[in-house]
Amino acid sequence: MLSASHRLLQLLTVLSTRPEWSGAELADRLGVHERTVRRDVVKLRELGYGVETATGPFGGYRLGTGSRMPPLSLDDDEALATAIALRRLAWSHPDGEGRAAPAALSKLRRSLPPRAAEALGRFDLAIAEAGVRPDAHGEVDPDTLTALAGASRTRDRVRFRYHDRRGAESTRAVEPEQIVRTAHRWYLVAWDLDRRDWRVFRVDRVAAVAVTGPADPRRREVDATALVEEAITTTPYATYAEVEIHRSLDETRALLPATIARHRADGPDRTLSTVGGLDARWIAEFLLRLGVPFRVLGPDEVREHVVARLEELLGLQRNP
User: Fold this and answer.
1) Which member of 23, 164, 284, 315 has the lowest number of beta carbons within 10 Å of its beta carbon?
2) Is the model's pLDDT at 1 over the cut of 50?
3) Which of 89-93, 185-189, 244-248, 281-285 shows the lowest per-residue confidence on average (mean pLDDT)?
4) Residues 138, 225: one domain?
5) Which residue ranges traverse the bilayer (predicted)?
6) Model's pTM, two decimal places?
7) What pLDDT digit, counting tens, does each position of 30-43 carry?
8) Is the C-alpha dihedral spanning 178, 74, 104, 141 positive or negative?
């Protein structure tokens, strides 16, 4: 859960990215109930922020023109959590509200106390990328992400509760190696002390992280990104699509990372790809954002989502 101050600053950041937001949109973006949004708006007004109620059939909120923006008071932990949230917002939505996040982060970072600034630096150094594109990541707790990234940098052992994909809970004792973010999720690569092998954990399934001591300094390093890519490509996705990409094999591999697709050449300028995703709609949206010619060979559900989205973008209506 976000702290109150952290959530207020994130609300301000989102409000500043476009002229008007509905209460439902703000609630969805912040992951809270609309009642929480209304309470936070009242709190911002009490602090002197010019948040106005927008008129219209659906109502909404906007920042008042020329309003003076007084600073929020954040303690060390809240400042660090806010900085991490702004960085995640910039990563996840670079073409939307995330565009304002780097500027806000730059201002916040200059005022971070030394302990929080050092922790943010450890967080940055502990993050690796595996075929990242600007898509939504699994929602993770900022404190959990910070704790795991910190343990990765300081070479500490940790213990946490973990829920696997079947919902079974276990307690795991590990030595974290690195945090890896992909197009879909955040993952922890760690040496499992009980199983005596490397394991890949979804960070959104981790809870109650506690440092238990220093890691073994003799433990060998590993290619964390490669482990995550291997784990993802061998784990079933909810939906797959067969797609013909009108690009060479090397170009296609650069566009569609190994974390979500397998490829085979079908000529010098054409590649056949098996693309996995959360659902048919997600795959359709992902393919349309590639910016290259393609043809969906199947299933029909993915093809229909592509056609419907193109019709929507072109302002057309499907014939009855």
Assistant:
1) 315
2) no
3) 89-93
4) yes
5) none
6) 0.47
7) 888 888 888 888 88
8) positive
Tell me how many domains the chain contains.
3
Domain termination site, one of 217, 233, 249: 233
Separation between Cα atoms, residue 87 and residue 100, nearest integer Å? 11
For residue 280, give its domain range.
239-314
Gap between the Cα atoms of 218 and 276, Å rounded: 38
Q: Can you give the CATH number for the domain in which 276 is found?
A: 3.30.70.250
User: Does residue 320 sit within a domain?
Assistant: no
Residue type, 225: T
Q: Which of 210, 233, 256 is a domain's end point? A: 233
Residue 173: what pLDDT? 96
CATH code, 15: 1.10.10.10
